Amino acid sequence: MHDFGFFISIMLAGGLAYFVAGLLDARRRLLRRDFVDSRPVMNDGEFRLGVSAISPVDVAFCRAFRLAVGRALGVSADRLDPRHRLLADLRVFGFDSMELAATLERAFDVRVKVMDVMRSGTLRRLALVIHERLAEVSEHEPPLHRDPVPKMRAPDEAADLDAPKAEGTSPSA
Fold first, then answer.
1. Which of 36, 84, 125, 163 reaches 20 to 30 Å from 30, CA-CA?
2. Which of 122, 87, 127 is nearest to 104 (CA)?
3. pTM of the model
């Protein structure tokens, strides 16, 4: 009988922890949405200048990056600023960082780790990390949904499979 009571108390404690975590997650998402909605709308050219003050970044890349981040975090992509801090301003941690990394992987077809998201600090640094990975395609880390670079060359001449073989020739000749 004591085992059953212990099991019930563990179930209640787990349910309470799950409920409180859900409430805190909803509050964090509400605070994030309020923060982003309080910012002015920024066009793609201004966002690109904020990201690529030193190294050039394409406007199309910046637009795709903003849309992917906005979709992953559930906020308006037009109000995102490259100076927004991921942990402090946008409150990205835990499951949100995993969701952001997965969304960026699908959007850019390049490996994005959760540690890259957490180490970057700002949207500007995260965009530069992804842009550098897109520029450096290697055999060690090929794009996710494409075949890696082949290691062997294709044959110079097409093999003629329909032509009959002569009886006196050997394959090595």
1. 125
2. 127
3. 0.70
Contact 91, 48 (CB under 8 A): no
Distances in Å between the Cα of 137 and the Cα atoms of 116, 144, 171 are: 17, 11, 40
Q: Which CATH superfamily is domain 12-135 in?
A: ACP-like (1.10.1200.10)
Helix, strand or coil, per DSSP, at residue 85:
strand
If one counts every other C-beta atom within 10 angstroms of the C-beta of residue 12, the result is 10
Mapping DSSP to helix (H, G, I), strand (E, B) and coil, where does residue 173 land? coil
At residue 84, what is the residue type? H
What are the start-end ranges of the E strands in 8-141? none
Which of 43, 111, 113, 103 has the alpha carbon at shortest distance from 79?
43
Answer whether residue 78 shows pLDDT above 70: yes
Domain boundaries, the chain: 12-135
Signed CA dihedral, 50, 54, 60, 62: sign only: negative
Please tell me the distance from the alpha carbon of residue 33 to that of residue 78, in angstroms, as a whole number.
13
Length of the chain: 173
